[in-house]
Amino acid sequence: MLFGAAASIVFAWYCFHGLSWLARGVGIIPIVHYDPPVDQWILIGDPMLQSWHKVRVSEDFTLAGIALIFLTLVLSYYVARVAYHLSFAKVFTRHDRWFVAGWMIGAPLMAALGHMLVLLVFEQSWAHRWPTLAGAAVLIAFSVSAKLFADFWQWLMRRLRVHPI
After folding, report:
1. Which pLDDT tens digit goes with each residue over 62-84?
2. Of 71, 101, 128, 141, whose CB count within 10 A is highest?
């Protein structure tokens, strides 16, 4: 079990950095570096004791970076399962292969879409006057697009009779 966890952690680190390198190679920015560092407000605490705190950040994830994180997590989960079972056949059933294929197609599409949405929305003059509204619009469009892709992939899997065991 420890071997599976170690393999998953090492794979996740290399996988995310490799995917980030590929994304940067095609012009998609997964991580933004701030020089000099900027102040950012974050909400910390449980619901009863929540409060806002100002922190200084020197880098932050974009929507594309978050999509790549989710793809990395899914792939590292399967690497851990393969390391635990020591068998590809036990881990990669037909359903699992289709599931991973959906993530491998969907996550880069969502990364590109998130990058495109940010570029399109923040070129508008209203987005600079109301950045919170523009950010909410981008997040809603990104979420709806991800849901539509997931529904399409689920429909395709049902249509091709790919069912979980």
Report:
1. 888 888 999 999 999 999 888 88
2. 71
